[in-house]
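Page 42, continued from yesterday. The earlier attempt failed because a stray header line got pasted into the input along with the sequence. Redoing it now with the clean sequence only.
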Amino acid sequence: MPETVVDIRRAQPWLGTRVEIVASGGPLRAVEAAIEAAFAAIAGVHHALSAQDDDSELARVNRAALGAPQAVSQAFRDVLACALDVARESGGAFDPALGMLPAAARAVAAGSPAAPRATWRDVRLHGGAVRFARPLALDFDGIAKGYAVDRAIAALVAGGVTAACVNAGGDLRVIGPRDETVHVRTGGAQSVLLPVATIGDAALATSAYGGARRSIGGRFRTPLIEPRNRLPVMSTRTVSIVAPTCMLADALTKVVALRGRRAAATLARLGASATILTPARGTWRCTRIAGAPAATRGAD
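This time it went through. Structure tokens are written below.
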């Protein structure tokens, strides 16, 4: 009788968070090898697409893509193509060319080389090369973590794993016959743990903005940037997105955090659904947007 394995659990620090992989589906050595391959895939995404690493592929492209087209890896193409698609579908509510971090917003406001009106429309992706039409800086912090989860899932499947959950700090994806009920921790002073969805063969990403603000130079900054004016947005929303891939879910959390119900058409076109938790008089109000994919059920 072949050896079987149930729920091998491993965790490593990557992408600025704790990444946990739970997998099963075959002989012990095979599943452990698949998990190691999954962590290697995550490490590859981390090193290639980090905005904080001056030696990353992203840093190289940001330095040189204005002057000449830059050859990029398949991972870079995958993430940029998805980012540009979400930017197009959301009318620019998600914009990888603006820098979704407070540091990027401060640099633009201080008169950095980024052109004042440069947006995702100034990014050219042709085949395996990227070029900028105006000075700008790509930032994948709003999408790369989800992509890393997807690549980890692909490595697990390639290694023969039949059931798994990869969770990178709340961005997660589930495969296999079992469903997973996902709880999220809301942001802000009223932080609580609440169930938002039960998913199977799907992905979920969450962004909680209520407790994310911090004071820099006497002014509050948050990770949520409004692309129309490049200013930080104060939001109390905790947004969870269910989508076919974690990369897509990750990007869409920013769209829904900014646009709320107005993002319904974008979600519908991309096959995603949203749950918004908003503090209301000592409790949390739950708002659901768009139809859930077939593999997903809302949790009451």
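Notes: Residues 100-112, 215-219 have pLDDT under 50 and may be disordered.
Reminder to self: strip header lines before submitting.
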